[in-house]
Amino acid sequence: MGDWAISREIQCYQDLDDEVNELPIKLNIINFNLDATCNRHSCSETRLQLARVPKKTIQLQNIKPTTSRSAWKRQSTLVGR
Question: By residue range, what is the domain housing residue 9?
Answer without folding.
Answer: 3-76
